[in-house]
Amino acid sequence: MRNRIKDLREDRDLTQQKLADIIGITQRKYSYIETGVQPLTDEILIKLADFYNVSIDYLLMQTNDPKRNK
Asked: Could you tell me if residue 66 is inside a domain?
């Protein structure tokens, strides 16, 4: 999961700081999430899925299909 979140961020040429600002957390907290030091909360998971317009299952690596179910 950490790699997927990092890959999505890097694919959009975003820094950890910029993405942290977008989802309303500190860069340090985002870094800890991305490296697995801190667990990903439901709230942040939802924010990331909304921002990237992907399913939560995709972020959690339960599927390789990023599309959201309608």
From this structure: no
**Two tokens, residue 38:** 């801190």
CA–CA distance, 24 with 30 (Å, rounded to integer): 10
Cβ partners under 8 Å of residue 65, min gap 6: 55, 58
What is the torsional sign of CA 31, 34, 36, 42? positive
pLDDT along the chain (70 residues), means of 10: 91 98 97 94 96 94 77
Residue 47 domain boundaries? 2-59
Name the CA radius of gyration of the chain, rounded: 11
* 51 domain residue, yes or no: yes
Prediction pTM value: 0.87
Tokens 């997927």 — which residue? 4
Query: Is 69 domain-assigned?
Result: no
Number of domains in the chain: 1
